[in-house]
Amino acid sequence: MDVFSHLNWYSGNVSEDGEPEKSIPSGKLILVSDTLESDGSFLIHYFLQSIFKSTSNSNSSGGNSSNRGGACLLGLNQSLFNYFNVGRKLGYNLTTENGKGNFTFINGLSTPYQWIKEQRVQQLEEQGIDEEPPLDSISQGFSPFPVIQLTSDKLNNNNSSSNSNSSELVDILKKIYQEFIDDHMKRMAKDPKSKTLFIIDSLNILSSYYSKNKSGSYMDIINFLQYFHTFVQDNSKTCSLVILFHSDCDEDTKFYNMLKYEADLTISISGLKSGYSKDIDGQIGFIEKDENNLTFKKINPIHYQALDNTIRFFHLGSRIQ
């Protein structure tokens, strides 16, 4: 089984032959919630694998164009090197997918650490060295293809006031939004029926980095998500947004509750209540929002096992715990 057919079956998204659609629900804001003990990043890789596999199958068979799509990933939690290596294990190559126009990577890790480059320049000047000696590819940073950098002049400003802090976050959120939209528009210009999955991994980095005024930062992020959510709904047939959030990294649960209320679908990753099992890593729960009456319903959870080169999903009770 797979996550999407499980979700679409309960949501009533079935094909003409009565089978559930094996694709990511379109026009949705999807919140993936995990904990430090049960990491949910494997779902990010699973989403990417599913997109590239369906797109490849569609192109090779010349069949259903609705299966074609791509992904735009904002990496705040892991480096491109990590996403690339996991992708190779799961059977896809990000360099190849980028060349096809199916994958875009926004590097959000470099922005907070811009001061490192400035410090290095100062060290070279003190040593009387005019030019940085050539470095090997690993030292230079892993760049198998051009990536988008999030940059802001204000990040080099040491002003610690809460207003300045909030302004920095708003500037970064605007930059993220614009890069996402530009990527979607380029893909739509190439193929009007293709779909784009926007991925933010992970939202905690934005909220924690700008934590001097937490309440203000939280509202800035919620406003950003509401604005983005409207765009996704207006383009419901061609895009969706997935957010990874570590729910136990902050004692303040108000922000997490606001995220769950804003999301159309919340996917929660947790450990097994029965304890350790060598065949099952944990449980995936689903809460879906009904936009018509703003009510929430639980969908039957499933079990999962994340292996080196694949991810398995099971109905509850189908494997011995």
TrEMBL record:
Which GO CC terms are listed, alphabetically?
A: elongator holoenzyme complex
Q: Please give the biological process terms from Gene Ontology that the record holds.
A: tRNA wobble uridine modification
Top-level taxon: Eukaryota
Q: In which pathway does it act?
A: tRNA modification; 5-methoxycarbonylmethyl-2-thiouridine-tRNA biosynthesis
InterPro entries according to UniProt:
ELP6, P-loop_NTPase
As for family, the record states: Belongs to the ELP6 family.
Q: Which PANTHER family match?
A: ELONGATOR COMPLEX PROTEIN 6
Put simply, this protein is called Elongator complex protein 6
Its source organism is: Polysphondylium violaceum
